[in-house]
Amino acid sequence: MFKHSKKTIVFLVVAVFVLSLTACGGGTPTTGSTGGGVEESTNIDDVEQSSQTGTVEEEKPYTVEVDPVKWKGKKISVWQTFPEEGDVQSDYGGKSQKQRREEFQQISGATVEIVQVPGEDYDKKVIAAISAGTGPDIVWFGPDKKPTWMLQKLLLPLSDYIDFNDEEFMKNTGWSKSVIDFYTLNGKVYGANGVQLAARIYYNKDLFEKNGLEDPYELYLNGQWTWDKFIELAQELTQDTNGDGKIDQWGYISWITRQWYYTNGVELIKWVDGKPKFGMDDPKAERALQARYDAIHKYKYMPEVWWDPGPQDRFWKGEIAMDYWGYWEMENMKKNMGDKLGMVPFPIGPDMEPGKKSADVAECIGCGIAACSKEPDLAALWLKWSSVSDPESKEAYEKKMADLYGGLEVYQVFLEAAENAVIDEVGGYGKLGDIIGTEIENPVMDGKKTPAQAIKAAAQKAQAEIDNIWKQAEAAGQ
């Protein structure tokens, strides 16, 4: 019996939180984010203007202007759950948050204070401090804070201080348009960050070659990577290899499930006249849920009990052909499998809009300006300045990624897939995730209801939960 699990969702969010540290001073470069150095200055009083500079495809320098006369003596604070010395970014070739902060302080004359708040206390402390007017200038927040933090007016619109229509800036920043779009509500941008971290199918190249099967990555490049082809290959790779009457090699395994919806064009939350609506009351969602059921019960290429024994070890041993897992597993996968490891986005379903090649599961922590900020312009400047990377960091980062992905061209393909990935909005609406899991998905996976029956039975309750969360947040923001 496949059960909806809160633990797996929490694990996904925590893992992504660790890796998704681009916006608030990390400067980890992404494609389109080029940069330069900092103009040398030993005394800010001798400098009329300093800047963080970059290049656009090695042509002209891009500059985020910093006026030390204006900002000297000013101070902002950033509250986060991780230490700035953690150097997560530098592990991937970029400068650490600490290095970026020290550079910015030198050229601006301002102070950026980084405050580490324990993760278990973070939300409670941030909300209390902002409400009291004593909180930070810059905060981190996850997808589950949309729409509540915006409606409760805990955040200032970032778009009031940063021009997201500035094409030159957007070419040079490490920020992702898809992340910015996600953290937009009622036409206002509240959060930004770098490219979102998308899950993907890891696959065992040796098993495909041994069975004379087409390579999934090549199928993807040729626009032929569909559910039908995926199911065909997964069935071929599900085998009783020792003749004992039991399956000991499976075609596919994963604890992540919402890719079935996204790759079939389903919006779990859809927006109608500026308000959120439950999006599963749709034949596309029924077909997606049926495909999940069929993977185990009809086509039987995925085990019903996927977690025991551990799926990762089984994948490395060649007992599983395809494993849909998170970005954070890539280095570990590469270490254990070497050149045998292949990667590809999840295939596209029959109802996906024409021309769209992927829609993987993604999470991304946003960074924005707290409503209590006394220096929102300086906070915005720090965010903007620190999002632009220098050429050395960009080159080192791309080399690291090319090594991991097996070539820069492959990395570029996955950057494109990441921009097409879907950040889950369900977590922002109270018990909606539980309603979907326990009242829709579990009855279907247990064979007690059809997808249409389960969705119809729970749709009204799901919409009521969405409406309730929206109304409560609006009332709190009055």
Walk me through the structure.
With 478 residues, this protein is α/β, with parallel strands linked by helices. It has 2 domains: 7-197 and 363-423, D-Maltodextrin-Binding Protein, domain 2, CATH 3.40.190; 198-361 and 427-476, D-Maltodextrin-Binding Protein, domain 2, CATH 3.40.190.10. The protein has helices at residues 6-19, 68-71, 97-108, 122-132, 148-151, 167-172, 177-182, 205-210, 216-221, 227-237, 259-262, 283-297, 311-316, 330-337, 376-386, 391-405, 408-420, 432-445, 451-476, and strands at 50-55, 61-66, 75-80, 111-116, 138-141, 155-156, 184-185, 188-189, 197-198, 200-204, 250-253, 269-272, 275-278, 320-325, 341-344, 361-363, 366-370, 422-423. Strands 4-3-5-17-6 form a 5-stranded mixed sheet, with helices on both faces. A 4-stranded mixed sheet has the order 11-14-10-15. Strands 9-16-18 form a 3-stranded mixed sheet. A hairpin with a 5-residue loop joins strand 1 (50-55) and strand 2. Residues 1-23 and 27-57 have low confidence and may be disordered.
